[in-house]
Amino acid sequence: MYYRRHLEDRLTGPVSRNKVRLLFGARQTGKTWLLRRLLAGQDTRAFDLQDTAVRRRFEADPATFSREVRALPRSATSVVLDEIQRFPPCWTRSSVCTMPRLPAGSST
Length: 108
Ligand SMILES: Nc1ncnc2c1ncn2[C@@H]1O[C@H](COP(=O)(O)OP(=O)(O)OP(=O)(O)O)[C@@H](O)[C@H]1O
Ligand SMILES: [Mg+2]
Fold this sequence. Notes:
By secondary structure, the protein is an alpha/beta fold. 33% of the residues lie in helices and 13% in strands.
């Protein structure tokens, strides 16, 4: 059973197009579920930085993140970084600047 969240419309609506959105919240309040629900069926690239293998790949070469985002197909509408606090270099301006080339969509 999925309970609809008020944030859904704001994250998917025009106001979020070509924007970086940060979703903060206390533990176990449904952040990951919300993002998965919103992005299911969209052409989205999700990085789960809780996944040790993903984190190790980025730690080995911090430029990997930007490279992978730049390599996304034109059809990609959103990039999701879950648990972004686990890999601070993803916050840098150069990483974020790779995203505006993406067409309309919600980035979180
Ligand atoms: N919209 C929802 N409707 C119903 N159940 C939900 C919903 N969102 C979350 N839950 C329940 O709450 C649990 C925790 O959700 P989730 O893992 O998304 O939280 P989180 O905020 O990402 O947690 P963490 O801070 O630990 O990463 C889920 O396993 C699910 O059982
Ligand atoms: Mg989570």
